[in-house]
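User: Can you predict the 3D structure for this chain?
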Amino acid sequence: MASSKNNSFRLFEQEREYANPMVATLADRLIDIRKKNIAASLSDFEGSAHKLQKVKTLNQIDFIDDARSTNTNSVWYSLQSMTKPVIWISNVDNVEKITNDLMNQIGEKVKCVVLQGVYNTDVYDRFAEMGIPVYVEMNMEDAVSQAYYACDKGYVVLYAPGAAGTNGLSYREKGDQFQNAVAQL
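Assistant: Here is the predicted structure, written as structure tokens:
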């Protein structure tokens, strides 16, 4: 053991019989913390549920669930990842959160926007000013149906809400609603 002369932090001044079990307990806790952090990190990988999850392909139209995109930065990443023209189902409710970078991605990749649920007219107007067709649907089934009929073959219907806690639902619940609506097509 380090003497108090060499141990300026005085961490292990207790007798050896107490120090070893204490170190062993601390090491066990650190390992447990690492396991929990690793599990949490793995659950956030792109392959996890509701993160760029391919739900179905119907008539050469892909349906992608990205319900985890609960802010506009996440939506930017989602759009950046798309290699096909996009019909975007969105819940963005605040025009101030729409960045110029996101607007550039929308202009480049989005062919139509379907605002699902309660919407802000400023958001609607912002997309309409870009010359992009904008539809408003109150429930997910109608939003998915509208998006499907707005598509051409080779398009992607992307559900990336861009807002958290829309209608009091978690991203999991919203993603499940999207997947159920796609299954009904």
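The CA atoms of residues 58 and 87 lie 14 Å apart. Residues 1-43 form one domain.
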